[in-house]
Amino acid sequence: MRMLTPDGISFVGQDLNRAECVMTTRSGDLFVPDGRGGISVIAADGGITRLLARDAPEGFLPNGIALLPDRSVLIANLGPAGGVWHLARDGALTPRLREVDGRALPPTNFVGIDRQGRTWVTVSTWAVPREQSMRKGYGDGFIVLMDGRGARIVAEGIGFTNEAIVDPSGEWLYVNETIGRRTSRFPIRPDGSLGEKEVFAQYGAGTWPDGFAFDEEGGVWIVSVISNRVIRATPDGRQELILEDADAADVAAAEAAFQEGRFGRPQMDLGRRRGLRNLSGIGFGGPDRRTVYLGSLFGERLASFRSPVAGAPPVHWNF
To answer: What values do phi and psi take at 7, rounded to 5?
Structure first.
């Protein structure tokens, strides 16, 4: 697959704020979180609607979002109150999950749904502030399952849990471990519990995976913060670098800090100094699902490019 350069990127939207992930739909509408306290919707005709929550908890910071059939959303709150919240289409915000196994949830990273109506939630770390866990070899992140039996932790000891998505077969839960620098997967048992973790892809120097999406050929496309990379990992274990927008000196400095135990928020934020503004999310859209949209932590627009491979339809595609 041909590697792109930043010159081959186009942009959509405007005045976005911390569009950390991207929900694509058949209609062409794109749903992204908004750091001002809600979501932004980029319509197929380019118009933008912002929906901010009413009566949000102090420091409410949307991170991962899950689009629901009625076009309301679940929001993982990265703010101090943590947890998963439901944002109705009229702006009403209500808590959906505040604690698990008797413990209050700390800042919460991601929330997603699957085709069986289950909700998967990730927490990168119990540590507050989260930067305390950004150490090579450290991993206290976990995954929560919410279903008809309630909410429970189904996986622990993860190296900074980021996005977790059920694959198109419905048989595996994939998860990006940002500090572990790998994409792992767990077999899903009939009762929703998870089997033993497998490493699907281990990444090298300068790659810290954040968001990801599946394509129709079984590939997993991940985006890396700091280095602003898009990498496609194929089912047979090969990795293809699709795109990179990085300052070599910044990436080298971040890598040195990571190896020496000095890694933290200053290094994580280095990617904002490039045009792609610290990539964090990815989704396939357009009528043929061959348009790739890239969310970022600091960009005011979504980057996009065309892919030779179509994305697999996400669970929310027809919403």
So the answer is: -65, -20
